[in-house]
Amino acid sequence: MYKTNERPTENKLTPAATAVKKVRDPRLDFFRGVAMLIIFVAHVPGNYWAKFIPARFGPSDAAEMFVFCSGFAAAIAFGGTFRRSGFFMGTMRIVIRCVQLYMAHLGLFFVLATVCAVATAYFVDFNYITKLNLPYFFNNTSEALGALFTLTYVPNFFDIMPMYIGVLALVPVVILLARIHPYLVPAFSIALYAASWQWQLEFPAEPFSDRPWFFNPFAWQLLFFTGFAISAGWIKAPPPNKWLLIACIIFVLVLIPISNWPIMRAIPELKDIRAELILGFKKTNFGLLRWLHFLALAYICVTLLKGREQILRHGYFKPLIKCGQQALPVFLLGMTLSWIGGIVLDQIGRDALGLTIVNITGMAILIGFAYLMGWVKSSPWRQVPNKAALPEMEPVTEPKTDLGTRATQPAE
Prior knowledge:
This protein has one domain (21-375). It is built from 18 helices and 2 strands. 63% of the residues lie in helices and 1% in strands. The chain is mostly helical. Strands 1-2 form a two-stranded antiparallel sheet.
């Protein structure tokens, strides 16, 4: 996803080589930014706008976009560390990132638990603790805290971050396999995916039932490492081909009628077809139809943008790219705002005006927050001020007394 005009050697960099500036491919950040806004819209309770997100027209949705792009980005972010600094340091960087994600997950939970408690106390007609399915935490706090910190208590609204941690923890294993032979990576990923279905490999989501994590990392790693392997160059994406493009378009269009509930209600026979393919639609264990549908969409987008990537550098798309560059903080804020947006809609009503206000305001806040985080991460306080922009000042000559000593100035 980075392009340079020359590739310096790994051990010795010439001055010309170090001067080459990497140009970031906008596609990765653009689609991650799109995923962040879709995730926000999809998680606002009772949001009519969610009827028009991609998930309503096919098996895959923004979660697939997020996981694939995360895998692609992980190969860029962590692959270089493994190459330059060795396996141990690369693994340590993975551990640090997992800890960061773990703390982010806990922070998101406590923030939203607080929002639910305050909103329930203030708006007595609504029990937001029950709506977010958190009675167990508030009624059995001491027990729930232990389960929360060990990730054996993962309510549905908080499920994607633990899955991401579980998948990311497999990166060192994949790196070792790739050193033996790159093809061992897809072989391992497919085998682990099959095992998750065959032997129901999963993690418990709550101590009081047998419900598993909503996103099973043993299954979703298939998509993550698809993006990782393509980014690392271990497997090659198919080149642009007219007939393959047509086949992908047909495949995507055929799945629309059995993915869209209004269409299925109008044509009841489509429900029977969906029932026969229901395992392919499963989200927890990542049904294969979801994987194939996403890959078809990705191939269509990549083919249509081939040679036209600069379109995404237009000013109109900069807000989306900025959201993609700050994916983690934008995701955390988006999940928080989506629940707050549902509370607001409960009070002002879910008419066209109320929905427009909540959705547009939420997306505007996320975009503004992405720009703010980008500015903060640039460490502006470390930047050297532009001397040319400073007004020239006359040198100050301190007055002297008759004895030639400096005059004592009065304290201000």
